[in-house]
């Protein structure tokens, strides 16, 4: 965050004809038309710094608003040194000074210099890599250094701590503006918004606001005002680590929010309404979708900030192990959020697959599941003394779906039932005679009902395939537990959108229910053939697969790629 004096000095330089450049410290991802997107390390030409929070800048030919807190230090290109001359300038030399001495470059061995060019034709800003001395000419690059010297690790750590505290306070202000400036006003206009629309547009933003206020209160308690480098903020992240999972719901909902806003903005009434909300709350000149993007950007920024803090935290510092643990936690949070985002992007394909299965009965897959974990063909026996049947199995979170191939068209599937995985335990079965089924088995495993004596036995062609299924079942239970921990689920809005997408695709392609779209085969592909079990085998014979000469249908290849499970 830049001080008011630095902001005033920047405006004075701009108005005086100087060219002021800012270097980006963080990536700025935006969806608003008037915002300027950039990556860390990009150089931005500052055109207006009159607002302390948002500046107007230019990269190449693009202009737009960007957060002032996303840049750390500035370079100035001018044609006069009349206001800053501690030493007489040498002919044809370049003078260097730091416009923001508090903020420093990210890498200790790289000093980014701020050039004031004395040549008539002007010059290009450049960077030096040698260390600079305070207030004297650096003979290696012929530039006068007027800023602070290269700072030690404690000062660098203090800078990072100060930046984290500043951005947290700034972020709380954004969340307050969204909740009080937009959401509260929308709730008053029942003639324009219903509850479902507001849930889609704003998601759980109020939950995030409440969580962040508690998080920032604890950060403030750990913040050492006199000696910021002594602050111990790592434990705050660890204490609140479970709370950060609420961002998963918000990030997963964000695309739907943008789509809903886009539809509303086609009506001029909504454009005027949101603009009136912004002006009433005295918010900066950014569209509502830009504000709603802030939480997505924020959760992605935490690992970057903690990584930089760890870099400047000495091993003997009392906060070191906590910061290292916090970094691992926040990286895991962002990784899991991205993974769940990927799952939501695949729900259209899952709905499309279900629409392709003939004779479907019962609830939709998406009512309980959101991920295909594994799929393949197995021999299946349901009850003692029952006959072996070959089925195609699809393991989703919470349920195992059974399908049968058409006898003539092997690319057509018929629904034959499902097994509720929440009610069953998976057990390995040893090769040999099975007492429950009174048959000899090989490469087998069982699903046993927790509340009754119901048992299903499955037989794979090879031991490797059996082991892959056992690992897949373990992965399914792990996924269910993680989803319950963070409250992950598919919203009714997302289910309706998936159903609409299926109808649209079906209509455009002229696909009927007899021609299934792509659906997933096993992540660990079996060999190219089909696996069949004769249904008239004697009970005393060993049940295992034999390979068929028929090759797999092409549509198996696509849907299985949705499954994240690997060998």
Automatic annotation (TrEMBL):
Keywords: Cytoplasm, Guanine-nucleotide releasing factor, SH3 domain, Synapse. GO terms for molecular function: guanyl-nucleotide exchange factor activity. Residues 510-529 are annotated as: Disordered. Pfam families: RhoGEF, SH3_2, SOS1_NGEF_PH. Residues 156-340 form the DH domain. InterPro entries: ARHGEF9_SH3, DBL_dom_sf, DH_dom, PH-like_dom_sf, PH_domain, SH3-like_dom_sf, SH3_domain, SOS1_NGEF_PH. Residues 17-76 form the SH3 domain. GO terms for cellular component: cytoplasm; postsynaptic density. Residues 371-478 form the PH domain. It is found in: Cytoplasm; Postsynaptic density. It comes from the Eukaryota. Acts as a guanine nucleotide exchange factor (GEF) for CDC42. Promotes formation of GPHN clusters. Interacts with GPHN. This is Rho guanine nucleotide exchange factor 9.
């Amino acid at each position: 965050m830049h001080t008011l004096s630095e902001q005033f000095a920047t405006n004075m330089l701009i108005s005086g004809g100087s060219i002021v450049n800012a270097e980006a410290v963080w990536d700025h991802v935006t969806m608003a038309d008037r915002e300027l997107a950039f990556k860390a390390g990009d150089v931005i030409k500052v055109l207006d710094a009159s607002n302390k929070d948002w500046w107007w800048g230019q990269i190449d030919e693009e202009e737009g608003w960007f957060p002032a807190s996303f840049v750390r230090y500035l370079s100035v290109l001018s044609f006069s040194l009349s206001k800053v001359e501690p030493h007489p300038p040498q002919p044809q030399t370049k003078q260097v000074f730091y416009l923001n001495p508090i903020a420093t470059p990210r890498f200790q061995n790289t000093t980014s210099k701020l050039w004031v060019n004395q040549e008539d034709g002007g010059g290009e800003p450049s960077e030096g890599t040698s260390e600079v001395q305070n207030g004297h000419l650096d003979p290696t690059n012929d530039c006068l250094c007027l800023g602070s010297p290269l700072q030690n690790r404690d000062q660098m750590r203090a800078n990072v701590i100060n930046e984290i505290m500043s951005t947290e306070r700034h972020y709380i202000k954004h969340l307050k503006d969204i909740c009080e400036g937009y959401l509260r006003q929308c709730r008053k206009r029942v003639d324009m918004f219903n509850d479902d629309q507001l849930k889609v547009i704003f998601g759980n933003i109020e939950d995030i606001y409440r969580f962040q206020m508690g998080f920032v209160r604890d950060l403030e308690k750990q913040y050492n005002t006199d000696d910021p480098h002594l602050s111990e903020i790592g434990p705050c992240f660890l204490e609140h680590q479970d709370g950060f999972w609420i961002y998963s719901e918000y990030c997963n909902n964000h695309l739907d929010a943008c789509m809903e806003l886009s539809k509303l903005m086609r009506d001029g009434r909504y454009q005027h309404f949101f603009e009136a909300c912004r002006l009433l709350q005295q918010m900066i000149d950014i569209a509502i979708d830009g504000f709603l993007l802030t939480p997505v950007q924020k959760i992605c920024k935490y690992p970057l900030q903690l990584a930089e803090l760890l870099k400047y935290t000495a091993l003997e510092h009392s906060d070191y192990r906590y910061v290292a643990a916090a970094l691992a936690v926040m990286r895991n949070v962002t990784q899991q959020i991205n993974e769940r985002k990927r799952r939501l992007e695949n729900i259209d394909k899952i709905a499309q697959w279900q629409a392709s299965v003939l004779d479907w009965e019962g609830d939709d897959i998406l009512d309980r599941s959101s991920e295909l974990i594994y799929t393949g063909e197995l021999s299946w026996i349901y009850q003692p003394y029952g006959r072996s049947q070959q089925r195609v199995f699809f393991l989703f979170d919470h349920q195992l779906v059974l399908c049968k191939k058409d006898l003539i068209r092997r690319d057509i599937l018929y629904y034959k039932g499902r097994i509720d995985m929440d009610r069953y335990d998976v057990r390995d079965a040893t090769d040999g005679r099975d007492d429950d089924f009174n048959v000899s088995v090989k490469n087998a495993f069982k699903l046993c009902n927790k509340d009754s004596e119901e048992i299903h036995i499955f037989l794979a062609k090879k031991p490797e395939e059996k082991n892959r299924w056992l690992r897949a079942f373990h992965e399914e239970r792990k996924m269910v537990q993680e989803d319950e921990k963070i409250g992950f689920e598919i919203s009714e809005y997302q289910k309706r959108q998936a159903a609409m997408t299926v109808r649209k695709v079906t209509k455009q392609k002229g696909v009927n229910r007899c021609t299934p779209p792509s659906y997933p085969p096993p992540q660990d592909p079996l060999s190219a053939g089909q696996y069949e079990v004769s249904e008239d085998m004697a009970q005393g014979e060993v049940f295992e697969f034999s390979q068929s000469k028929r090759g797999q249908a092409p549509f198996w290849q696509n849907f299985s790629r949705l499954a994240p499970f690997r060998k």
